[in-house]
Amino acid sequence: MKSVPGAYDFLPHTADAKFRAYGKTLEEAFRNSARAMFALITDIEKVKGKKKVAVRVKAKRRDSLLFDFLDRLLFLLDTKGLLLHDVEDVKIREEKGVLVLTGTVVGDHYKRYETHGDVKAVTYSDMAIKEEKGGWACQVVVDL
After folding, report:
1. Domains, in order of start, for the chain
2. Closest among 50, 48, 92, 101 to 73, alpha carbons compared
3. Are the C-beta atoms of 17 and 119 separated by less than 8 Å?
4. The model's pTM
5. In whole angstroms, what is the distance from residue 31 CA to residue 108 CA?
6. 4-50, pLDDT tens digit by residue?
7. Contact between 20 and 9 (Cβ < 8 Å)
């Protein structure tokens, strides 16, 4: 696993994996969070975009939305074998006081690729979403 400058960095953590993802928009930071999480599993640049699956998650807070989004991607991996290459058209909007994220997961079946790790779960441990000068940063710890 290697960091991608401007998109995400892997940070030291004693037992699990920790990353910080960046974006000029909140949507881009969420997209890069997904890419960072799957970079812990495989070389996402080698994964072909053969399958597309629409995703939609809702939550009252940004951190819950990020958690639920990443958790949904792990669910797609566990149930459909969908290994992520990217997430297209990520949109976050507010509907009646609830944040709604929609997007399209692009990837392929995991059996076609070499993997080098497993992400068991997303955690709220040390999670942070911050608006910074020039964009957004999302920090996440996942259980390996």
Report:
1. 8-143 (3.55.10.10)
2. 101
3. yes
4. 0.96
5. 17
6. 878 999 999 888 999 999 999 999 999 999 999 999 999 999 999 99
7. yes
What's the rounded Cα separation, in Å, for the pair 27 and 69?
A: 11
User: Distance between CA 92 and CA 88 in Å, rounded?
Assistant: 12
* Residues 91-110 pLDDT 10s: 999 999 999 999 999 999 99
Please tell me the total number of residues recorded for the chain in this structure.
144
Residues 6+ apart with CB under 8 A from 83: 38, 41, 42, 44, 47, 77, 107, 108, 109, 110, 113, 115
Amino acid in the structure at residue 92: I
CA dist., res. 111 & res. 95, Å (int): 38
